[in-house]
Specification:
By secondary structure, the protein is an alpha/beta fold. It has three domains: about 220 residues, P-loop containing nucleotide triphosphate hydrolases (Rossmann fold, 3-Layer(aba) Sandwich), CATH 3.40.50.300; about 110 residues, no CATH class; about 180 residues, Rossmann fold, CATH 3.40.50. The protein is built from 18 helices and 23 strands. The strands form seven sheets. It has a six-stranded mixed sheet, sandwiched between helices. It has a five-stranded antiparallel sheet with strand order 2-1-4-7-8, covered by helices on one side. The protein has a four-stranded parallel sheet with strand order 21-20-22-23, sandwiched between helices.
Protein backbone atom coordinates (compact mmCIF):
# COMPACT_ATOMS: atom_id res chain seq x y z
CA UNK A 1 0.00 0.00 0.00
CA UNK A 2 1.48 3.35 -1.04
CA UNK A 3 2.22 5.92 1.63
CA UNK A 4 0.14 8.96 0.74
CA UNK A 5 -0.48 11.47 3.50
CA UNK A 6 -0.45 15.23 4.00
CA UNK A 7 0.33 17.62 6.83
CA UNK A 8 -3.06 18.72 8.13
CA UNK A 9 -2.60 20.84 11.26
CA UNK A 10 -0.04 22.50 13.53
CA UNK A 11 -0.86 22.95 17.23
CA UNK A 12 1.31 25.14 19.45
CA UNK A 13 1.07 25.41 23.23
CA UNK A 14 3.14 27.77 25.39
CA UNK A 15 5.86 28.24 22.77
CA UNK A 16 7.46 31.70 22.70
CA UNK A 17 4.69 34.28 22.28
CA UNK A 18 1.93 31.76 21.55
CA UNK A 19 -0.02 30.44 24.53
CA UNK A 20 -2.25 28.28 22.40
CA UNK A 21 -2.81 28.33 18.66
CA UNK A 22 -3.95 25.78 16.10
CA UNK A 23 -3.72 26.28 12.35
CA UNK A 24 -5.06 23.96 9.65
CA UNK A 25 -3.08 23.53 6.45
CA UNK A 26 -5.06 23.72 3.18
CA UNK A 27 -5.59 20.59 1.12
CA UNK A 28 -4.07 22.43 -1.82
CA UNK A 29 -2.64 25.84 -2.45
CA UNK A 30 -0.21 27.90 -0.35
CA UNK A 31 -0.91 29.11 3.18
CA UNK A 32 -0.21 32.85 3.50
CA UNK A 33 0.20 33.95 7.13
CA UNK A 34 -0.33 37.66 7.74
CA UNK A 35 -0.72 39.90 10.74
CA UNK A 36 0.97 42.76 12.58
CA UNK A 37 4.54 42.57 13.84
CA UNK A 38 4.99 40.40 16.94
CA UNK A 39 1.77 38.52 16.21
CA UNK A 40 3.61 35.17 16.00
CA UNK A 41 4.07 34.61 12.24
CA UNK A 42 7.76 33.66 12.45
CA UNK A 43 7.08 31.53 15.52
CA UNK A 44 4.66 29.40 13.50
CA UNK A 45 7.27 28.76 10.78
CA UNK A 46 9.88 27.97 13.44
CA UNK A 47 7.50 25.52 15.11
CA UNK A 48 6.79 23.70 11.84
CA UNK A 49 10.51 23.47 11.00
CA UNK A 50 11.35 22.32 14.51
CA UNK A 51 8.82 19.51 14.66
CA UNK A 52 9.93 18.36 11.17
CA UNK A 53 13.60 18.59 12.20
CA UNK A 54 14.57 20.91 9.37
CA UNK A 55 18.21 21.98 8.76
CA UNK A 56 17.66 25.38 10.33
CA UNK A 57 16.66 23.75 13.64
CA UNK A 58 19.18 20.90 13.94
CA UNK A 59 21.10 22.70 16.67
CA UNK A 60 18.04 23.93 18.55
CA UNK A 61 18.31 23.86 22.34
CA UNK A 62 15.50 25.40 24.42
CA UNK A 63 16.19 28.65 26.21
CA UNK A 64 14.16 30.53 28.77
CA UNK A 65 12.52 32.73 26.15
CA UNK A 66 11.19 29.70 24.25
CA UNK A 67 8.62 29.21 27.03
CA UNK A 68 5.50 31.35 26.99
CA UNK A 69 5.55 34.28 29.41
CA UNK A 70 2.45 36.19 30.51
CA UNK A 71 2.40 39.95 30.84
CA UNK A 72 2.67 39.60 34.62
CA UNK A 73 6.02 37.81 34.18
CA UNK A 74 4.81 34.28 34.96
CA UNK A 75 6.59 31.83 32.63
CA UNK A 76 5.41 28.35 31.68
CA UNK A 77 7.65 25.36 32.38
CA UNK A 78 6.74 23.33 29.30
CA UNK A 79 5.88 23.85 25.65
CA UNK A 80 4.37 21.45 23.11
CA UNK A 81 4.24 21.49 19.33
CA UNK A 82 2.17 18.92 17.46
CA UNK A 83 2.11 18.40 13.70
CA UNK A 84 -0.77 16.20 12.57
CA UNK A 85 -0.96 13.97 9.49
CA UNK A 86 -4.06 13.15 7.46
CA UNK A 87 -4.66 10.33 4.98
CA UNK A 88 -7.58 8.56 3.33
CA UNK A 89 -6.98 5.51 5.55
CA UNK A 90 -4.47 4.24 8.12
CA UNK A 91 -2.51 2.17 5.61
CA UNK A 92 -1.66 5.35 3.71
CA UNK A 93 0.05 6.83 6.77
CA UNK A 94 3.75 6.12 7.42
CA UNK A 95 4.26 3.35 9.97
CA UNK A 96 6.98 2.24 12.37
CA UNK A 97 7.75 -0.84 14.43
CA UNK A 98 10.44 -1.99 16.82
CA UNK A 99 12.03 -5.43 17.24
CA UNK A 100 8.65 -6.91 18.13
CA UNK A 101 5.08 -5.81 17.67
CA UNK A 102 2.85 -4.89 14.77
CA UNK A 103 3.45 -1.77 12.65
CA UNK A 104 1.75 1.28 14.09
CA UNK A 105 0.52 4.18 11.94
CA UNK A 106 2.25 7.51 12.54
CA UNK A 107 -0.34 10.22 13.05
CA UNK A 108 2.01 13.14 13.43
CA UNK A 109 5.11 14.45 15.14
CA UNK A 110 5.59 16.16 18.48
CA UNK A 111 8.17 18.31 20.25
CA UNK A 112 8.00 18.73 24.02
CA UNK A 113 10.17 21.22 25.89
CA UNK A 114 10.57 21.07 29.66
CA UNK A 115 12.29 23.02 32.42
CA UNK A 116 13.37 20.98 35.43
CA UNK A 117 13.46 22.11 39.06
CA UNK A 118 17.05 23.30 38.63
CA UNK A 119 16.13 25.57 35.73
CA UNK A 120 17.70 23.35 33.05
CA UNK A 121 15.95 23.21 29.68
CA UNK A 122 15.60 20.18 27.41
CA UNK A 123 13.33 19.01 24.62
CA UNK A 124 12.17 15.73 23.10
CA UNK A 125 11.31 15.17 19.43
CA UNK A 126 9.34 12.12 18.38
CA UNK A 127 6.74 10.73 16.05
CA UNK A 128 3.23 10.69 17.46
CA UNK A 129 0.74 7.85 17.82
CA UNK A 130 -3.03 7.79 18.15
CA UNK A 131 -2.95 8.96 21.78
CA UNK A 132 -1.31 12.31 20.85
CA UNK A 133 1.82 11.25 22.75
CA UNK A 134 5.33 10.28 21.59
CA UNK A 135 5.32 6.89 19.92
CA UNK A 136 7.36 4.36 21.95
CA UNK A 137 9.01 1.45 20.20
CA UNK A 138 10.18 -1.83 21.72
CA UNK A 139 13.88 -2.36 21.01
CA UNK A 140 14.23 -5.75 22.67
CA UNK A 141 12.11 -8.63 23.94
CA UNK A 142 10.61 -8.06 27.37
CA UNK A 143 11.58 -10.43 30.21
CA UNK A 144 9.35 -13.17 31.49
CA UNK A 145 7.69 -12.83 34.89
CA UNK A 146 10.11 -15.38 36.36
CA UNK A 147 13.16 -13.47 35.11
CA UNK A 148 11.76 -10.20 36.41
CA UNK A 149 11.39 -11.77 39.88
CA UNK A 150 14.86 -13.32 39.82
CA UNK A 151 16.56 -10.15 38.67
CA UNK A 152 14.37 -7.65 40.50
CA UNK A 153 17.33 -5.83 42.06
CA UNK A 154 19.09 -5.31 38.74
CA UNK A 155 18.66 -2.50 36.28
CA UNK A 156 18.69 -3.38 32.61
CA UNK A 157 17.61 -0.02 31.25
CA UNK A 158 14.49 0.59 29.24
CA UNK A 159 13.66 -1.60 26.24
CA UNK A 160 11.72 1.32 24.80
CA UNK A 161 12.64 4.47 22.93
CA UNK A 162 10.79 7.12 20.98
CA UNK A 163 10.31 6.80 17.23
CA UNK A 164 12.06 9.54 15.23
CA UNK A 165 11.62 11.11 11.80
CA UNK A 166 14.38 9.08 10.12
CA UNK A 167 12.45 5.85 10.75
CA UNK A 168 9.72 6.68 8.21
CA UNK A 169 12.30 6.63 5.42
CA UNK A 170 11.33 8.18 2.10
CA UNK A 171 8.12 9.55 3.61
CA UNK A 172 10.19 11.98 5.64
CA UNK A 173 9.87 15.50 4.22
CA UNK A 174 12.63 17.85 3.23
CA UNK A 175 12.17 21.06 5.21
CA UNK A 176 13.32 24.39 3.81
CA UNK A 177 12.84 27.33 6.17
CA UNK A 178 13.89 30.18 3.89
CA UNK A 179 14.53 33.57 5.46
CA UNK A 180 16.10 36.82 4.26
CA UNK A 181 18.80 36.19 6.88
CA UNK A 182 19.77 32.68 5.72
CA UNK A 183 20.24 33.27 2.01
CA UNK A 184 23.83 32.07 1.84
CA UNK A 185 23.52 28.96 4.02
CA UNK A 186 20.30 27.84 2.35
CA UNK A 187 22.02 27.99 -1.04
CA UNK A 188 25.54 26.79 -0.32
CA UNK A 189 25.70 25.00 3.05
CA UNK A 190 22.50 23.03 3.56
CA UNK A 191 22.40 19.48 2.27
CA UNK A 192 18.88 20.17 1.04
CA UNK A 193 17.43 23.33 -0.46
CA UNK A 194 16.34 24.85 -3.80
CA UNK A 195 19.80 24.97 -5.40
CA UNK A 196 20.77 21.57 -4.02
CA UNK A 197 17.54 20.05 -5.30
CA UNK A 198 18.10 21.55 -8.74
CA UNK A 199 21.70 20.34 -8.98
CA UNK A 200 20.72 16.83 -7.83
CA UNK A 201 17.91 16.83 -10.37
CA UNK A 202 20.37 17.72 -13.13
CA UNK A 203 22.79 14.98 -12.06
CA UNK A 204 20.03 12.38 -11.93
CA UNK A 205 18.94 13.30 -15.44
CA UNK A 206 22.58 13.19 -16.57
CA UNK A 207 23.09 9.69 -15.18
CA UNK A 208 19.78 8.34 -16.51
CA UNK A 209 20.10 9.65 -20.06
CA UNK A 210 21.79 7.67 -22.83
CA UNK A 211 23.49 10.07 -25.22
CA UNK A 212 26.60 10.63 -27.32
CA UNK A 213 29.18 13.29 -26.55
CA UNK A 214 31.69 14.33 -29.25
CA UNK A 215 35.10 15.43 -27.97
CA UNK A 216 38.49 15.69 -29.67
CA UNK A 217 37.09 14.07 -32.80
CA UNK A 218 35.75 11.00 -30.98
CA UNK A 219 32.25 10.03 -29.89
CA UNK A 220 31.79 8.97 -26.26
CA UNK A 221 28.79 7.07 -24.93
CA UNK A 222 27.42 8.85 -21.90
CA UNK A 223 27.16 8.50 -18.98
CA UNK A 224 29.36 5.39 -19.19
CA UNK A 225 32.37 7.37 -20.38
CA UNK A 226 32.32 9.74 -17.43
CA UNK A 227 31.81 6.85 -15.01
CA UNK A 228 35.00 5.29 -16.37
CA UNK A 229 36.78 8.64 -16.14
CA UNK A 230 35.70 8.99 -12.52
CA UNK A 231 37.02 5.54 -11.63
CA UNK A 232 40.21 6.26 -13.59
CA UNK A 233 40.84 9.48 -11.70
CA UNK A 234 40.29 7.87 -8.28
CA UNK A 235 42.82 5.18 -9.12
CA UNK A 236 45.33 7.50 -10.77
CA UNK A 237 45.68 9.94 -7.85
CA UNK A 238 46.34 7.05 -5.46
CA UNK A 239 49.16 5.77 -7.73
CA UNK A 240 50.80 9.18 -8.34
CA UNK A 241 54.57 8.43 -7.96
CA UNK A 242 55.41 11.47 -5.85
CA UNK A 243 52.67 10.48 -3.43
CA UNK A 244 53.20 6.76 -3.46
CA UNK A 245 57.07 6.69 -3.38
CA UNK A 246 57.99 9.94 -1.58
CA UNK A 247 55.36 11.83 0.43
CA UNK A 248 53.33 8.85 1.65
CA UNK A 249 56.30 6.93 3.18
CA UNK A 250 57.54 10.08 4.95
CA UNK A 251 54.12 10.80 6.39
CA UNK A 252 53.68 7.19 7.56
CA UNK A 253 57.12 7.04 9.13
CA UNK A 254 56.74 10.35 10.95
CA UNK A 255 53.22 9.60 12.13
CA UNK A 256 54.33 6.15 13.34
CA UNK A 257 56.93 7.84 15.58
CA UNK A 258 54.27 10.07 17.06
CA UNK A 259 51.86 7.19 17.64
CA UNK A 260 54.39 4.66 18.81
CA UNK A 261 53.05 2.11 16.37
CA UNK A 262 52.92 1.53 12.65
CA UNK A 263 50.68 4.03 10.83
CA UNK A 264 49.21 3.58 7.39
CA UNK A 265 47.86 6.30 5.12
CA UNK A 266 45.98 6.14 1.88
CA UNK A 267 45.10 8.92 -0.54
CA UNK A 268 41.38 8.83 -1.12
CA UNK A 269 40.18 11.90 -3.02
CA UNK A 270 36.90 13.08 -1.57
CA UNK A 271 34.89 12.19 -4.64
CA UNK A 272 32.42 9.86 -2.92
CA UNK A 273 30.06 8.63 -5.62
CA UNK A 274 30.12 10.13 -9.07
CA UNK A 275 26.64 11.54 -8.51
CA UNK A 276 27.65 13.30 -5.26
CA UNK A 277 30.79 14.72 -6.84
CA UNK A 278 28.91 16.09 -9.85
CA UNK A 279 26.21 17.67 -7.65
CA UNK A 280 28.88 19.36 -5.57
CA UNK A 281 30.68 20.69 -8.64
CA UNK A 282 27.45 21.98 -10.15
CA UNK A 283 26.42 23.60 -6.89
CA UNK A 284 29.55 25.69 -6.64
CA UNK A 285 30.03 26.05 -10.37
CA UNK A 286 26.91 28.08 -11.10
CA UNK A 287 27.94 31.62 -11.86
CA UNK A 288 26.32 34.74 -13.21
CA UNK A 289 27.38 37.52 -15.53
CA UNK A 290 26.13 40.77 -14.01
CA UNK A 291 27.48 42.92 -16.81
CA UNK A 292 31.17 42.44 -16.10
CA UNK A 293 33.33 39.52 -15.10
CA UNK A 294 31.57 36.24 -14.34
CA UNK A 295 31.22 35.98 -10.57
CA UNK A 296 30.46 32.79 -8.57
CA UNK A 297 27.02 33.01 -7.03
CA UNK A 298 28.29 32.48 -3.51
CA UNK A 299 30.18 35.77 -3.91
CA UNK A 300 27.22 37.75 -5.23
CA UNK A 301 25.18 40.20 -3.13
CA UNK A 302 22.00 39.38 -1.23
CA UNK A 303 19.77 40.66 -4.03
CA UNK A 304 21.35 38.37 -6.61
CA UNK A 305 21.36 35.37 -4.28
CA UNK A 306 17.70 35.98 -3.50
CA UNK A 307 16.92 35.93 -7.21
CA UNK A 308 18.88 32.69 -7.62
CA UNK A 309 16.93 31.03 -4.82
CA UNK A 310 13.64 32.11 -6.37
CA UNK A 311 14.77 31.18 -9.89
CA UNK A 312 15.57 27.65 -8.68
CA UNK A 313 12.06 27.37 -7.23
CA UNK A 314 10.52 28.55 -10.48
CA UNK A 315 12.53 26.13 -12.60
CA UNK A 316 11.59 23.25 -10.28
CA UNK A 317 7.93 24.23 -10.57
CA UNK A 318 8.19 23.65 -14.32
CA UNK A 319 8.95 19.95 -13.72
CA UNK A 320 5.81 18.54 -12.04
CA UNK A 321 7.32 15.07 -11.78
CA UNK A 322 10.25 16.45 -9.78
CA UNK A 323 7.92 18.44 -7.50
CA UNK A 324 5.81 15.38 -6.73
CA UNK A 325 8.76 12.98 -6.37
CA UNK A 326 9.42 13.81 -2.71
CA UNK A 327 7.73 15.52 0.20
CA UNK A 328 8.93 19.07 0.65
CA UNK A 329 7.80 21.56 3.26
CA UNK A 330 8.65 25.01 1.91
CA UNK A 331 8.46 27.58 4.72
CA UNK A 332 9.17 31.08 3.40
CA UNK A 333 9.52 34.08 5.70
CA UNK A 334 8.91 37.40 3.94
CA UNK A 335 9.73 36.17 0.41
CA UNK A 336 9.14 39.71 -0.87
CA UNK A 337 12.53 40.78 0.52
CA UNK A 338 14.78 42.20 -2.25
CA UNK A 339 11.94 41.91 -4.81
CA UNK A 340 10.08 44.60 -6.71
CA UNK A 341 6.27 44.18 -7.03
CA UNK A 342 6.34 42.43 -10.41
CA UNK A 343 8.70 39.70 -9.20
CA UNK A 344 6.68 39.33 -5.99
CA UNK A 345 3.61 38.57 -8.09
CA UNK A 346 5.70 36.20 -10.21
CA UNK A 347 6.87 34.36 -7.10
CA UNK A 348 3.25 34.14 -5.92
CA UNK A 349 2.38 32.06 -9.01
CA UNK A 350 5.49 29.89 -8.53
CA UNK A 351 4.53 29.07 -4.94
CA UNK A 352 1.02 28.27 -6.10
CA UNK A 353 2.34 25.74 -8.65
CA UNK A 354 4.59 24.09 -6.07
CA UNK A 355 1.68 23.74 -3.66
CA UNK A 356 -0.49 22.29 -6.42
CA UNK A 357 2.27 19.77 -7.05
CA UNK A 358 2.02 18.45 -3.50
CA UNK A 359 4.45 20.53 -1.47
CA UNK A 360 3.42 22.07 1.81
CA UNK A 361 3.95 25.80 1.14
CA UNK A 362 3.56 28.26 4.02
CA UNK A 363 4.73 31.86 3.87
CA UNK A 364 4.60 34.93 6.06
CA UNK A 365 4.27 38.24 4.30
CA UNK A 366 3.58 41.95 4.63
CA UNK A 367 3.17 42.39 0.86
CA UNK A 368 -0.20 42.65 -0.94
CA UNK A 369 1.61 41.51 -4.08
CA UNK A 370 1.91 38.00 -2.63
CA UNK A 371 -1.85 37.80 -2.12
CA UNK A 372 -4.26 36.81 -4.88
CA UNK A 373 -8.03 36.36 -4.93
CA UNK A 374 -7.81 34.36 -8.16
CA UNK A 375 -5.65 31.46 -6.99
CA UNK A 376 -6.07 28.79 -4.34
CA UNK A 377 -4.39 30.49 -1.41
CA UNK A 378 -5.60 30.18 2.14
CA UNK A 379 -4.98 33.35 4.13
CA UNK A 380 -4.44 33.09 7.89
CA UNK A 381 -4.51 36.37 9.79
CA UNK A 382 -3.07 36.51 13.29
CA UNK A 383 -4.24 38.96 15.94
CA UNK A 384 -3.70 39.36 19.65
CA UNK A 385 -6.10 39.89 22.55
CA UNK A 386 -4.26 40.44 25.81
CA UNK A 387 -2.01 37.43 26.41
CA UNK A 388 -3.68 35.33 23.73
CA UNK A 389 -3.19 35.10 19.99
CA UNK A 390 -5.93 34.00 17.62
CA UNK A 391 -6.08 33.16 13.95
CA UNK A 392 -8.82 33.70 11.36
CA UNK A 393 -8.64 32.04 7.94
CA UNK A 394 -10.01 32.77 4.50
CA UNK A 395 -9.95 30.43 1.51
CA UNK A 396 -9.78 32.60 -1.60
CA UNK A 397 -10.96 29.67 -3.74
CA UNK A 398 -14.41 30.13 -2.17
CA UNK A 399 -14.63 33.88 -2.76
CA UNK A 400 -17.39 35.47 -4.78
CA UNK A 401 -16.49 36.19 -8.41
CA UNK A 402 -16.84 39.93 -7.69
CA UNK A 403 -13.58 39.94 -5.72
CA UNK A 404 -11.83 38.00 -8.46
CA UNK A 405 -13.12 40.41 -11.12
CA UNK A 406 -11.98 43.43 -9.11
CA UNK A 407 -8.46 41.98 -9.10
CA UNK A 408 -8.54 41.89 -12.89
CA UNK A 409 -9.32 45.62 -12.90
CA UNK A 410 -6.63 46.45 -10.37
CA UNK A 411 -3.45 44.39 -9.88
CA UNK A 412 -3.84 44.54 -6.11
CA UNK A 413 -7.62 44.15 -6.26
CA UNK A 414 -8.18 45.08 -2.61
CA UNK A 415 -5.41 42.81 -1.33
CA UNK A 416 -4.27 45.59 1.01
CA UNK A 417 -7.34 45.02 3.20
CA UNK A 418 -5.91 41.63 4.22
CA UNK A 419 -3.20 43.47 6.14
CA UNK A 420 -5.38 46.26 7.55
CA UNK A 421 -6.49 46.74 11.12
CA UNK A 422 -9.67 48.51 9.93
CA UNK A 423 -11.12 48.88 6.45
CA UNK A 424 -13.43 51.44 4.82
CA UNK A 425 -15.35 49.98 1.87
CA UNK A 426 -16.52 52.26 -0.93
CA UNK A 427 -18.37 51.64 -4.17
CA UNK A 428 -15.83 53.23 -6.52
CA UNK A 429 -12.67 55.25 -6.96
CA UNK A 430 -14.45 58.64 -6.69
CA UNK A 431 -15.80 57.82 -3.23
CA UNK A 432 -12.47 56.37 -2.13
CA UNK A 433 -10.59 59.48 -3.28
CA UNK A 434 -13.07 61.82 -1.54
CA UNK A 435 -12.86 60.00 1.79
CA UNK A 436 -9.08 59.57 1.71
CA UNK A 437 -8.66 63.27 0.90
CA UNK A 438 -10.94 64.37 3.73
CA UNK A 439 -9.58 61.98 6.34
CA UNK A 440 -5.93 62.77 5.66
CA UNK A 441 -6.07 66.46 4.69
CA UNK A 442 -8.98 67.68 6.83
CA UNK A 443 -9.14 65.32 9.80
CA UNK A 444 -5.35 64.83 9.85
CA UNK A 445 -5.70 61.08 10.31
CA UNK A 446 -2.58 59.03 9.64
CA UNK A 447 -4.34 56.21 7.80
CA UNK A 448 -1.11 54.34 7.12
CA UNK A 449 0.03 54.67 10.72
CA UNK A 450 -3.37 53.44 11.89
CA UNK A 451 -3.30 50.57 9.34
CA UNK A 452 -6.61 51.71 7.84
CA UNK A 453 -7.32 50.77 4.21
CA UNK A 454 -9.87 52.44 1.95
CA UNK A 455 -10.99 49.86 -0.61
CA UNK A 456 -13.13 50.30 -3.71
CA UNK A 457 -15.44 47.32 -4.17
CA UNK A 458 -16.61 48.30 -7.65
CA UNK A 459 -20.32 48.88 -6.91
CA UNK A 460 -22.89 48.46 -4.13
CA UNK A 461 -23.51 44.79 -5.04
CA UNK A 462 -19.90 43.96 -4.21
CA UNK A 463 -19.77 45.65 -0.81
CA UNK A 464 -21.05 42.52 1.03
CA UNK A 465 -18.37 40.41 -0.67
CA UNK A 466 -15.53 42.51 0.75
CA UNK A 467 -17.33 42.97 4.07
CA UNK A 468 -17.66 39.19 4.31
CA UNK A 469 -13.93 38.76 3.72
CA UNK A 470 -13.18 41.33 6.44
CA UNK A 471 -15.55 39.57 8.84
CA UNK A 472 -13.88 36.20 8.22
CA UNK A 473 -10.48 37.72 9.00
CA UNK A 474 -11.79 39.59 12.08
CA UNK A 475 -11.20 43.03 10.53
CA UNK A 476 -13.66 45.81 11.50
CA UNK A 477 -15.31 47.35 8.43
CA UNK A 478 -17.29 50.47 7.54
CA UNK A 479 -19.31 50.36 4.30
CA UNK A 480 -20.08 53.68 2.58
CA UNK A 481 -22.67 53.66 -0.21
CA UNK A 482 -25.06 55.89 -2.15
CA UNK A 483 -28.59 56.39 -0.83
CA UNK A 484 -30.02 54.96 -4.06
CA UNK A 485 -33.64 56.02 -3.61
CA UNK A 486 -36.25 55.63 -6.34
CA UNK A 487 -38.67 58.48 -7.14
CA UNK A 488 -41.26 56.98 -4.77
CA UNK A 489 -38.77 57.08 -1.88
CA UNK A 490 -38.08 53.33 -1.82
CA UNK A 491 -34.61 51.84 -2.25
CA UNK A 492 -33.41 50.32 -5.47
CA UNK A 493 -33.85 46.52 -5.18
CA UNK A 494 -30.16 45.69 -5.61
CA UNK A 495 -29.22 48.29 -2.98
CA UNK A 496 -31.77 46.89 -0.53
CA UNK A 497 -30.40 43.40 -1.12
CA UNK A 498 -26.81 44.60 -0.55
CA UNK A 499 -27.79 46.46 2.63
CA UNK A 500 -29.62 43.42 3.98
CA UNK A 501 -26.53 41.29 3.39
CA UNK A 502 -24.36 43.87 5.14
CA UNK A 503 -26.81 43.99 8.05
CA UNK A 504 -26.50 40.23 8.53
CA UNK A 505 -22.70 40.48 8.51
CA UNK A 506 -22.49 43.38 10.94
CA UNK A 507 -20.86 43.01 14.34
CA UNK A 508 -20.75 45.69 17.05
CA UNK A 509 -17.54 47.11 15.57
CA UNK A 510 -18.89 47.39 12.02
CA UNK A 511 -20.79 50.31 10.46
CA UNK A 512 -22.91 51.33 7.45
CA UNK A 513 -22.89 54.97 6.28
CA UNK A 514 -24.71 56.46 3.32
CA UNK A 515 -24.19 59.61 1.31
CA UNK A 516 -27.23 61.88 1.15
CA UNK A 517 -28.29 60.95 -2.37
CA UNK A 518 -24.81 60.17 -3.68
CA UNK A 519 -21.32 61.67 -3.58
CA UNK A 520 -22.12 64.02 -6.47
CA UNK A 521 -25.23 65.34 -4.72
CA UNK A 522 -23.27 65.88 -1.50
CA UNK A 523 -20.71 67.94 -3.44
CA UNK A 524 -23.32 69.95 -5.35
CA UNK A 525 -22.47 68.42 -8.71
CA UNK A 526 -25.62 68.39 -10.88
CA UNK A 527 -24.15 66.55 -13.84
CA UNK A 528 -21.18 64.23 -14.52
CA UNK A 529 -19.11 62.29 -12.03
CA UNK A 530 -17.12 63.62 -9.08
CA UNK A 531 -13.88 62.34 -10.53
CA UNK A 532 -10.65 62.73 -8.52
CA UNK A 533 -9.37 65.42 -10.93
CA UNK A 534 -12.59 67.44 -10.45
CA UNK A 535 -12.41 67.02 -6.65
CA UNK A 536 -8.79 68.20 -6.59
CA UNK A 537 -9.77 71.40 -8.38
CA UNK A 538 -13.16 72.20 -6.79
CA UNK A 539 -13.17 70.56 -3.34
CA UNK A 540 -9.66 70.24 -1.99
CA UNK A 541 -9.00 73.95 -2.54
CA UNK A 542 -11.78 74.95 -0.09
CA UNK A 543 -10.96 75.71 3.53
CA UNK A 544 -12.80 73.69 6.17
CA UNK A 545 -15.31 76.41 7.04
CA UNK A 546 -16.28 76.95 3.42
CA UNK A 547 -16.46 73.22 2.75
CA UNK A 548 -18.77 72.74 5.74
CA UNK A 549 -20.99 75.63 4.63
CA UNK A 550 -21.20 74.67 0.97
CA UNK A 551 -21.32 70.85 1.33
CA UNK A 552 -22.62 69.94 4.82
CA UNK A 553 -23.92 66.51 3.76
CA UNK A 554 -20.48 65.54 2.48
CA UNK A 555 -18.77 66.73 5.67
CA UNK A 556 -21.37 64.97 7.82
CA UNK A 557 -20.82 61.59 6.14
CA UNK A 558 -17.04 61.96 6.11
CA UNK A 559 -17.05 62.90 9.82
CA UNK A 560 -19.05 59.75 10.60
CA UNK A 561 -16.32 57.69 8.93
CA UNK A 562 -13.69 59.68 10.84
CA UNK A 563 -15.46 59.02 14.15
CA UNK A 564 -15.78 55.32 13.34
CA UNK A 565 -12.03 55.07 12.72
CA UNK A 566 -11.19 56.92 15.92
CA UNK A 567 -13.64 55.00 18.11
CA UNK A 568 -13.20 51.49 16.72
CA UNK A 569 -10.23 49.62 18.19
CA UNK A 570 -8.15 47.40 15.92
CA UNK A 571 -8.95 43.68 16.14
CA UNK A 572 -6.08 42.72 18.45
CA UNK A 573 -7.61 44.88 21.15
CA UNK A 574 -11.05 43.27 21.09
CA UNK A 575 -11.97 41.21 24.15
Amino acid sequence: MDVNFRFSRIEIENFRGLKGLALDFPDKGPLAIVGPNNAGKSTILDAIAMVMEGPSTHNFAPEMHDYYCKRDGAREGTFTIRLRFAAAHDQALPAVRGAVGSPEPVRGAIVIGKTDRNGNHAHTSALMGSDDKPLSLLTSLSMSKADKASWADHSFGSPKRYARWYEIGDARPEVWLLRPSNLHVSLFQWKTGPLQRLSNFLVRKFMDAKWEFSYAGKSHAMPGAIQKAHAFFRSAVAEFPFWKDDLKPKLQETLSQYLGRQASMELRPDLKTLEEWMAQQLLFGFAADSGGAITPLDRMGHGWQSLVRIACLEVLSQYPEEVSRQNVALLFEEPESYLHPHLSRKLRSVLDRLAQGGWLVALTTHSPDLISFNGQQTIAKLSRSGDDASVATLSVEKLDTAAKFQERLDERGGHEMIFAQRVVLCEGKDDAFALRSYLTRRANLDLDGLSVSIIQAGDVNHLPVFAGMATQLNIPWCAVSDEDKLPDGSLKPNTRTARDKLEKLMRPQDEQITWTGDLEACLGLTYGKARPSWQAEHVESLDQATLTTKHPEFVSAAEKVCKWIQCTPPPQMHR
